[in-house]
Specification:
single chain; 411 residues; alpha/beta; eight-stranded parallel β-sheet; two-stranded antiparallel sheet; 12 strands; binds ligand FNR; Alpha-hydroxy-acid oxidizing protein; Aldolase_TIM; oxidoreductase; FMN_HAD
């Protein structure tokens, strides 16, 4: 209702209230390279499409005259209470959408009381984002590095930076097949974007220096290396000149590409997690019910049912469809988050009715960022939450627990 009141008072919104227009306008202001990376998906884009189509197969059945004038949108998740069942998904290489993006997102999250999950592939060290958020809620997302020293280091930093939970992303042990980026010959990481968590990590510097200590390959000045250095100068002047002293950016980029993940990641690695951190552990990227059961058997506090926004496996199951089978498999108690394809408050409602405890937004808030910086992110969050609130008012659901499967039918 605040949103309508502001509209009535003539406040012009900084972002469109509907996703289709938000996307159109964000595309117009983005470079081809940024758009390919952020909006793109794996292969032919079938998973990305399916994520949306899955929502169309359910219909909400509104209920009347519930007698409840107010709604309580808050939810308890491992690690704390949230004002609404919406969190900001970890999104790497955000600098593609403008300099300082991670800090802008962090401020928007804090201003709206929304938890922000810092990406392992952030463009700003997590400590700087945390400092911009005061006491507001943040989590940290980890890619399990091939080098255990980095795993230890990133977990320790996340704890020190006040993370409320540790999210370990399982679905990106290698990068998916992404034709749009491949066709443009561009991935942000090769240009030094998205490696700030590493270059600011003393352990990573040690690793880079250790590698350089081996019989050193002669420094070769290739066209690619020059391009990388130029891009780094443009995107992060401060960091670039700082890095020039030591270690060499190129060595950092190459080391990063080599060790950011562990293609051999197994349940044996994950079994060690419980003893490595005092934080709640959230496993992200689960789609199969057996994997979900296994995650909770290992002591995970929550699972994010996700196909990474359709960016990893083409023709994969829609994450909303996976949510249904995962919820059936694990029963009502375990905490399930859902992402991939959430575009509106009505989508959040549908996901909650199908068994999610909360959802993550990915691209929508990045589009808000592209259009209007911090204010744009804030408004995208407010719009989604406002529509959820209105949907609850119109379906007779005074709180999140009241949003159940009985309010949906197959469409
Ligand atoms: C992502 N995602 C992601 N996930 C993760 O665990 N670590 C990461 O660094 C990234 N990076 C990333 C970059 C970009 C540009 C996008 C669009 C996505 C996946 C993200 O957390 C989330 O799962 C999806 O974005 C959710 O889908 P929607 O909302 O974008 O459809």
């Amino acid at each position: 209702s605040t949103i309508y009141r502001q509209g009535a008072l003539g406040r012009r919104p900084v972002v469109p209230a509907d996703f289709a227009e938000l996307e159109r306008r964000a595309r117009r202001v983005s470079s081809a390279r940024a758009w390919a990376y952020v909006a793109g998906g794996a292969g032919e884009g079938r998973t990305m499409r399916r994520n949306r189509e899955a929502f169309d197969r359910w219909a909400i059945v509104p209920r009347m005259a519930s007698g409840a004038a107010d709604r309580d949108l808050s939810v308890d998740l491992p690690g704390g209470r949230h004002a609404a069942p919406v969190l900001l998904a970890p999104v790497g290489a955000g600098a593609l959408m403008g300099a300082g993006s991670d800090v802008r997102i962090a401020r928007a999250a804090a201003a709206t009381g929304t938890a922000y999950i810092f990406s392992n592939q952030g463009c700003t060290p997590m400590e700087e984002c945390a400092a911009a958020m005061g006491d507001a809620s943040r989590w940290f997302q980890l890619y399990w590095s091939k080098d255990e020293r980095l795993v230890e280091g990133l977990i320790a930093r996340a704890e020190a930076a006040g993370a409320g939970a540790l999210v370990v992303t399982l679905d990106t042990t290698v990068l998916g097949w992404r034709p749009r980026d491949l066709n443009l010959g561009s991935l942000p990481f090769s240009r030094g974007q998205g490696i700030a968590q590493y270059t600011s990590d003393p352990r990573f510097r040690e690793i880079v220096a250790g590698r350089a200590g081996r019989p050193a390959p002669k420094p070769e000045v290739t066209l690619g290396a020059v391009r990388t250095l130029l891009a780094m100068t443009r995107n992060h002047p401060g960091r670039f000149w700082g890095n020039l002293r030591s270690p060499l950016p190129r060595a950092s980029v190459e080391t990063f590409l080599d060790i950011y993940s562990n293609p051999g990641l197994s349940w044996e690695h994950l079994a060690t997690l419980r003893d490595r951190t005092r934080l709640p552990v959230v496993l992200k990227g689960i789609l199969h019910p057996d994997d979900a059961r296994r995650a909770f058997d290992l002591g995970a506090d929550a699972v994010v049912v996700s196909n990474h926004g359709g960016r990893q496996v083409d023709n994969a199951i829609a994450s909303l469809d996976a949510l249904v089978t995962v919820r059936e498999a694990v029963g009502p108690a375990p905490t399930l988050l859902l992402d991939s394809g959430i575009r509106s408050g009505a989508d959040v409602f549908t996901a909650l009715a199908l068994g999610a405890n909360a959802v993550l937004l990915g691209r929508p808030y990045m589009y808000g960022l592209a259009l209007a910086g911090q204010r744009g992110v804030e408004d995208v969050i407010r719009n989604v939450v406002a529509e959820l609130d209105l949907t609850m008012a119109l379906t007779g659901t005074p709180n999140i627990a009241a949003i159940t499967r009985s309010l949906l039918v197959a469409a």
